[in-house]
Model the fold of this input.
Amino acid sequence: MNHSLHITGGRVIDPANGIDEIRDINVRDGILVHEKSPHAEVIDATGKVVSPGLIDIHVHFREPGQSHKETIATGARCAAFGGFTTVVCMPNTSPVADSPSTIAWIQERAATTACVNVFCTGAITRGLAGEEMSPIGALAQAGVVALTDDGRCIQNHGVMRRAVEYARQFGLPVMDHCQEATLSADGVMNEGEWSTRLGLPGWPGLAEDLIVARNILLAEETGHPIHCQHISSARSVRLLREARLRGVPITAEACPHHISLTDERLKTFDTNFKVNPPLRTPADIDAIIAGIADGTISILASDHAPHATYEKEVEFDQAPFGMLGLETELAVFLEILLHQRKALTLPQIITLLTVNPAKLLRLDRGTLSVGAPADITILDPDHSWTYDRNDSPSLSRNTPFHEFALRGRALTTIVGGKVVWDLESGFRS
Amino acid sequence: MNWQHKDLCALADHTAQELMTILDTATAFKGVGERNLKKVPALRGKTLVNFFIEPSTRTRISFELAAMRLSADVVNISASASSLEKGETLLDTARNLEALRADLIVIRHKSAGSARFLADRLNASVINAGDGAHEHPTQGLLDAFTIREKLGHIEGVRVAIVGDILFSRVARSNIQLLTKLGAKVTLVGPPTLVPASFSPLGVEIAHSIDEVLEESDVINLLRIQHERQRKEYFPGVGEYSARFGLTKKRARRLKENCLIMHPGPMNRGVEIDSAVADGKGSVILDQVTNGLAVRVAVLYLCSGGAPMASSATDQ
Done:
């Protein structure tokens, strides 16, 4: 790789280094460097924002085992399309990513087919069954960046406690999908006025709150970080805020759909709005946005969860949970947090999409420091566009944001010093 | 007078005026049902499929008779006789019915929203005969029809609906229709079966049947559904019956003209005393008769029939 870039005239926002100014960025051989190379390709970023490549620590790329929904290659293209240069895959594949051989397979597949950086998580328990610990030491050695049973939640508190204690020796953060199963039971949407109107079984916020509280206590007890995934309930935000003020090593993430869509959307029984945890109420949205604004929720992520159209085209209670996210993630966050609510500044939003996730999972990414890998996203926070799901590189079409008018979009996605996608010319390979 | 829809999936989707159109048309058809020659040729040459994926006798037969009154051809399909058991999706099964040129599909299904799901995807008319705990529109209509027929009006009438409201599609259709037509609805049952989340639907909530006996013009008793494993929701049938059953003693405190309704099938001695079910004020069998007139009207209107005026309208 002997290739150089000179990105000129852009507003460089690099929260890791406290930079927010017009300046040039130089890349040589995949690395950020001080000086412009003589034959560098020049990218004019005048009037645009130059950010460290965005990081999404919560995606489902469905390989191995469910490549009719998404592959690592197509999922990675969704990431690039959305301005993301690094993603972290969840382990609920088939087979489950609970062994070093499966991790190695995913890593190999990513290295040969993905146009962005793909990191793996390993399952906390074998087969995501919530009973026996996975070979956590071997998973750590194989290079997983965190442990999670995402999609499931370990109901046995003893098992969860031991897993967190055990993970500590490897420095692997534990991420949890917070859902107490006896309270969520057979629920398929938020429990409240709309589940009452629609006669659909409710999954109350209470079921999330109880596990968030459990995780706070376990993080406090063990001193080891626990990360609460896709927070959806107002009371969970309150519990997290109190815990973080006390210095408990607990973190949380929020997803685009949980700050932009309410459970009223389900009134047409459209399964593209069926997601776990479910869309909740305007009050929950307000609380999550307040939590993002005050630092209670320090990471933004998509929970990109592709499902084939024929799988979603069934009775509402039979349909799988999950929605696409990477393609619209940045735009929805900017539309809601920056434009509509004015809850955060652009540098703050970029912090939650770069430095903070990198710090949690100890990735050498999310910065424009000289010497770092040249992962860069050029974006326009004011770009007005209407999303069309048929433009998605995904193998699936289950987005709730089809035909949404949005402000803000990635223009160019650069991974390891190479432009992999830009709005004008599309994918480079 | 207007009805512009090919489907009837939920009463929540329709205006008060549209719902009155159905009731008025049903009144006109009830007259037909009292004649010696009960048949009219309105749907001659049309095919109706009764697609019942959940067991039902009364509703299925009522739709079947309604279709016959309109001279339609009728086919009945149950879950065990369909390819759903072989793993075919609901949509594929329904598309096959449409490919066989079914004009109307009457569906009962355990999943809320299943009627709407088909209606959005098929050219055939889709009539909801009960979708999970969501709605049972023709039951709501026949209940309102019966109230109007017996009391002369619906606006201002006080209706108490008692029982397993949370899991009841009958309750939801009644709530939608009666509140739109100006009735005052009170839901009665233990807090586990009548949660506060019903309040935004424009109803009152009571946790004791004794609170509503004197004031109600209509008491609609819902079946307590043993088969759906409600053990987490109340301790048992005995305690339920003691607190919410309409006993003879309680029935004596009702208004002189209070109507006693039940969508059936009844559990005699549980939600209603046997003598009360058969006694003065009980209109339970009138509901069944009226159900036929209402279903005739729904099939007729959803097939594009012109609304009919009735002399019995009150508004």
User: Anything to note?
Assistant: Strands of chain B lie at 47-52, 73-78, 104-109, 125-131, 158-162, 184-188, 204-206, 218-221, 259-261.
